[in-house]
Amino acid sequence: MIFQALGARYGFGAAVKHAFTRGSKQDSEKLRQALVKRYGGEAVLYQKGRAALAAAIRLATGGKGTVAISGLTCYSVVQAVEAAGCTPVFVDIRESDLQFGAKELIAAAKKHTGIKAVVIQNMLGIPADIAAIQKVADTADMILIEDLAHSAGAQYADGREVGTIGDITMLSFGRDKAIDSVNGGALVVRNHKESLAFPTIAPSLSVQLRDRIYPLIAWLTRALYPVRVGRYVMGASIKLGLVRRSADGEVDETVCLPHWQAKLAYQQVVSLTTTAVKRRQKAQTYGTYLKDLSPAGMGQAGGAPVRVPLLVDSRDTVITYLATRGIQVNDIWYDVPVSPQRLYDRVEYPVDECPNAVRVASKLVNLPTHERIKSADIKRISQLVNEAVKV
What we know:
The protein contains 13 helices and 13 strands. By secondary structure, the chain is α/β, with parallel strands linked by helices.
């Protein structure tokens, strides 16, 4: 079977290697220096990406005020904004590239005066119109924060690398992200004169064990899925606390990234350019088969899609059709404007201000571009999608 999530980039060998990786202080320093070399500034490592984002927002705002974020996002982003002492302002997106642009940001700023910072999400690895947004941010005295959770290694339309433009860059190393060590995050700060606070508390052994064994549990889940046992393996693992569901948990800026996860993240950072090219090529291959279903922004030369988005009117039909033929794409980023759905009620979401995001969230389906997906897989998946939309 083919999966887009559930640790699908990890085969059995990679899952075992992940479980038994050992690291040292030197590995964390190597990761920090690699991030500094690539993005400039000063780098700080965190146990979670949302903690890195909260720290970025706190630096940008002083811990109060409003922050502009994408109208199509995940609960972890909202959680980070609120943990930093701020209030999120949701900015509607464009269906053409799933991002907001200068026009949308200006409209939000007029309605919500005093926005102190803006988070550029680069949704699914599709680069935002950074040049236009940067002009608005500079004019309005907003601090620009680049979120690379989906887009590490990508390039903006003007050729500049994603993560090298804003005042602050945030990376997430969470599972199924552009850099995946199951958990972790980093902050790269430029244009900041004050000393940065470095987290010093190590995650508990139980938390680290959970991060170590997740790829193995995910592999077993995928292996047993065809005989209808896999979902029970994952369900039992969640109930036993061996796996934590996406977006669950707290924001703690005092907990650092363990050295062994820094080692895994470093290995992916130094190969980012190669990985981005491969993802781009896979997205382009999907595009040759599915050009009428994919947002126009997918065609950007510098994109590095962590998943390829499709907009379909009959999403449930497409997902079910693929599932019955061995393609599991039911893990959607994002099935509601602020995903996951089980946490959506916690958010005071302005539906009337973000009609495009609401509509896109009802139509979005994502296809995999991870390293285990081959050209033959892309062709088969695309053929099945084309069949499904005609059902």
